[in-house]
Amino acid sequence: MPFTDGHYLNLEAAHGGSPESTVTLAMESKFKERHYIRNVFGISAVEFLWGLGLPVVVESTFLQLFLKSLGASGFALGMIPFFFFIGTSVFALLSSYMTEGMVFKRRAVVILHLISAVALLVFGGCMLFLGRIEDILVLFFVCYAVFSVCIGMTLPVWLNYLVKILSEEKSTAGLAYMMIAQNSAKLISSLVILSVVQRYAFAPRASAVIFLVVGGLFMLGSLFFFLTREADEAGDQPPPRPSFFRYIRNTQQHMVRNRNFLVFLGSDLELYIVVTVISFYAAYATDFGGVRPAVAAGVFVGLIYAGAILSNVLLGTMGWFTLKHKAMASKLGSMGAVLLLAIWCTPVSFYIASFLLGMARGTRMIVYAPAVKKLSGLSDATPYFAVAPVLTLPLAMGLPLACGHFLDRMAWMEGDAYRMMLAMAALLIAGTLVCAWRTDFTTSPRIGDGLPFDAASGRPVGFRGPHHN
What we know:
Layout: E1 8-10, H1 11-14, H2 19-34, H3 36-57, H4 61-69, H5 74-99, H6 106-127, H7 133-165, H8 171-200, H9 204-222, H10 244-257, H11 259-267, H12 270-288, H13 293-317, H14 323-343, H15 347-376, H16 382-391, H17 393-409, H18 415-438, E2 446-448, E3 453-454, E4 459-460
Helix pairs in contact: 3-8, 3-9, 4-12, 4-13, 5-7, 5-12, 5-16, 5-17, 6-7, 6-9, 7-16, 8-13, 8-15, 10-16, 11-18, 12-13, 12-14, 12-15, 12-17, 12-18, 13-15, 14-15, 14-18
């Protein structure tokens, strides 16, 4: 339903449109322009070092095959995205609430990134001294659960920080440069993983060293945030901090009334479907597609990141397509990849599908943060970044577990069980494509009069956030 002046309050009007507000925004814009290159270099350096380690722990074919070498079941493989999505949904609320009202968030971003690295260092260090496979599996899932919680607390603050230090006009291009750096590092890392797995397979000591190196890279990369500069978004002092539950309630009310954002959120469900597919398709390839484990652990990942780099260049730095068309292109790419895997089970099909999945994932990474920022209508969109995953949690949590359980129960069907799962995933992605098509990316929202909304601050009641809000 379109927004109308008779029923909604324009967020821009809520800011008052005063000369002082206009001057402040102009000064902030100049500050961001002046530090654009420095900020892009800083966040790109962070993501390059993190990119060297991410193929091991996030959306990873390495983890699938590592756990399979330890005798893990399909349901256990489904626990990886389950833990990750739980962490990024529930615990994101806590960091969002704790950092609300901070004018400068760089220190919080750095600390949260550093804490995320510690869980991997602990796992790698302890794994050197464990001999029993059962102990390694238990330790892995404990440490990965902690890692997921830490990443979950990091994500909303990090995403808001990225769109805060980059101007709206250049945020997509800036994020594209950042993701090119990350995906280039992932490509390098995938080749290293291929070499290590070919030489050592998944030997416990070799795997332990890999996790230790990843934790070290994450810690070193986090320090490059200190190169970035953020503007002092000056204005009135924020209101007193509300209770945690009131904060969450007001955020959810604000989002539920923002129907255009809810439609966009429906389109973003593609993320969870694609991650679920990535979590199982390496096992499908090695068991029924004639692909060697070393190739699945290295080459698949390399093709995913090559596809992501291409999409970052074409849709980000070169500026192809509007924000809406970029979102739709992501769904078309992932749907094509999943259908290809369901219909054609050969090494070539897995290579092509990996590249298409990478293009879809790369596009989503440069679309999501600017889209949330714009569709929320808020200068500090941290609450939206934190609460949005909670609304999608049922699918994010249930889909990988359901798929893992289905594959275990239907193991007698062999490859056909995977093909049935992939066909259902393609149907779900088609639904997200419809949502992307129905989302209006061209205008900021007009929020309903029924909201607990503070016209003086232009924000939901109970929010703190940047001062000029």
